[in-house]
Amino acid sequence: MNLFRSEEHIAHWLDGRSPGMTTTVVTLSELAHAWWGNRLDPAWQPRSKAANRAILDSLGLTGPLWSLD
Question: What is d(CA 10, CA 16) in angstroms, rounded to the nearest whole number?
């Protein structure tokens, strides 16, 4: 994972190469909170694949990288 300040910095770093998948730090933070936020709860139970998919979908994280298959 690489963190960049702007789209311009991404373009400069890539130097014409394809960027692959990019997302914001805000989205990654939202994912971390949704995915791991309740793991220390004594009543924690694993989520279903459908519930995990719903988290990813709600954040717009779709495509092959985010496939749960």
Answer: 10
Cα distance between the two ends of the chain: 22
Domain boundaries, the chain: 7-66
35: left (phi over 0), alpha (psi -120 to 50) or beta: alpha
Both tokens assigned to 67: 């496939």
> Which residues in 40-60 are b (16+ Cβ under 10 Å) and which e?
eeeeeeeeeeeeebeebeebe
Give the DSSP letter of residue 15. Answer: T
pLDDT per position as a tens digit, 10-32: 999 999 998 788 889 999 999 99
